[in-house]
Fold this sequence. Notes:
Layout: E1 7-8, E2 12-16, H1 22-29, H2 32-35, H3 46-58, E3 67-73, E4 79-89, E5 94-101, H4 110-125, E6 130-135, H5 140-148, E7 152-163, E8 166-176
Parallel strand pairs: 5-6
Antiparallel strand pairs: 1-2, 2-3, 3-4, 4-5, 6-8, 7-8
Helix pairs in contact: 1-3
Amino acid sequence: xxxxxxxxxxxxxxxxxVSADAPALLAIHGNAEAMQWFGMDPxxxxxxxxxxxxxxxxSRSLPNPGIRWGIQDKTHEALLGNCGFFKxxxxxxxxxxxxxxxxxxxxKGFMSEALQATLVWGFEQMQLNRIEATVHxxxxxxxxxxxxxxxxxxxxxxxxxxxxxxxxxxxxxSLLRAEFEPSPISAL
Length: 188
């Protein structure tokens, strides 16, 4: 994954996250309300946001690489959020999905549109057979989004996460290539 793949949807540009995006990442990942579901403590300063940019960049060169897109409304330059894959197991043709969206963009269908393009890319370009997601059981918006995209809930991972000072249960969901039915993005 040396060349970063840019994806486009009718409203969005999914692009590489760069240092100039650190302020937007601070706003997104510094929001305590949003981060209660994300699996990490909120970041608190621009240095942590820059470290997040670096983490996303470096993840592409790991033995089990990942890729994280910045989600940008085509009419604005600032990031709305981010999404992508991590823990790619090439032998098993599987990986995990992660995403975060700034609060000002909630409820507008942006993440659904972004994930639809991301899933297509994962199944086609990475040749994935299985995409996994873990979600806090009380994150109903995320669970509904994943279920609309075709993910199936498989079970509960007891105290599998730790953030904000607490061990937390997570729900395991997955989407298989054979079950994936891409929706026309314009209909989202």
